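Supplementary Note 2. Why include the ligand at all?

Several targets in our set were suspected to adopt different conformations when bound, so apo predictions alone were not considered sufficient. For every target with a known small-molecule partner we therefore ran a joint prediction. The input for manganese (II) ion is given below.
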Amino acid sequence: MKILHFSDTHVSHRRFRDVRDAWKISNRVTWIEEDYCLGFKKTLEIAAETDYDYVVHSGDLFDIPVGRYLAGPTEYSRTYVIKELKNFFEKTKYKVPVIIIDGNHGSYLTRNYSTIEFIQAAFPGNVYTFTNYQLKKAILDNKPLKLEFDEVVFFLFPYFKFGRAPHIEKSYEEWLRNNQQPDSSKISIAVAHGMQRGEDLHSLLFDFSYDYVALGHDHKQGSTKTNAWQSGSTEKHTFAERGHTKGVLEVEVQKGEVPKVTPRKIETKRKMHQTNITLTTQTNPSDFEEIIREKIKAYKEKFAGESATRFKIKIDGSVLLSNWWSMEDILLEIQQEVFTDAYNILEFRWDSYDLSKRAPISHEKGAKIHEYLIDDPVDDFERYIRSLGLENEDQARIFIDMGAQIIDEVFSGPIESTQEEEEE
Ligand SMILES: [Mn+2]
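The joint prediction is reproduced in C-alpha cell form.
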C-alpha cells in the first residue's frame, strides 16, 4: 500500500505588516498568499502522477483563522483548494481517498467549526476530514476516532494540547488506551498533528504498533522514529525555515514491517534572506545606517513579484536606548525606500528581541537600585510579609509561599514576546 503524506500547507497565509503593498493579480491575490497555494497545487500534482492508494494531510491545511485572529481563508484560497482537489480527483478517476485532520490553524475559536469541513462537503465520499471538535466529542463519548477501509485502518489525532492540565492529560491517555490501539489484522496508520511530547503529541503514539505514523506541525521534514515521520511544510513559513528543503513523503506500508519512506522535494520559488547585525554601545545611528544599506545593496534592482525576496534583519548585542530610537527611525525610512520599485524586495522586517537596550549613563544609578531590589525577590517578599506582623502564622506562610510561586513564574518563566513570528 502506498500513501502520499503531506502537511502544513497553510493555504491563505497572508501578511500585512512589513510587506510591500503589491498584488500578484490586482485586488485578487497577493504574492505571498499565492506562494502557499502553489505548495498545495504541487503536492497534488505529485499525488496524481503516481499510483497512490491514499493521500493524507496531517493538519494546518488553511493558515487562518488562528487563535484570536478570526478571519477565515480568502475566497481566492478556498476556490483554489477546491479546484486543485477537483483536478486531482478527475486525474485519478475519483479512486484515491484524501484524508485531512485539523491542526492548530484553520478552526474558529468562537465556533465549533473548522475550515476543512467545507472541503468534505464539496467531495463527500472522496474527502474524509477529522476536526478538533470530533476529537473532543470522541473523548467525551469514549469512542474511537478512526476511518476503516478493507486493508487499512486510519487512527486520527487532530491537534489537541492535552498537556495543558494533568486531568486532561489523564483522560486523553485513557481514551487512547481504550480506543486508539492498532488493529491486529489490518494495516494501521496514525495521523497526528503535534510536535512536543507530553504537550501536544502523546508518547503512546510511538509505543502502539502502528505501521506508520503520519505527523504534522513540525515544519521541518524528518523522522521521529523509523515508522513515524513529520512531512514538513510545503512552503517556507518563518525565517527559521529559510534553509529547509521542502517536500512531501511517499510511504510504502506493509503490515508489520518498517515502512519505506521516500522524500519528494517541492521547489519553493520565494527567496528568504536573513542577515544578522550585532550592535555595541559604541555603534552610532549613522554607522548603523551604513551597515543596513550595505546589506540591501544586492537587491537594488527593479521590483518583480515573482522573484522578489523576503528579507529580515536580526539585531543583537547591546545599544544605548537613545541611539536605538534613531535606528528604528532609520529602519522605517529604509523600509519605505525598499518598498519602491527600486528594490526587488517583497518583505522587509527586523527583530531586536536579542538586543539589550541600555539606559543612558546618567540613568544607570536608578537601574542599579532596581537590580538590588530584585536581587532575591523571594527573601524580599518574605521580609515584607513579616513586616506586616501578621498574627496568624499559617496565613503568613500561605502568603509567603504564594508570593514565592508567583515570583518564580515571573522571573524564571520564558519571556513571552508579543510580536514573535507565527506559530507552526
Ligand atoms: Mn501546526
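The radius of gyration is 26 Å. The longest strand covers residues 309-320. Comparable summaries for the other entries are listed in the accompanying table.
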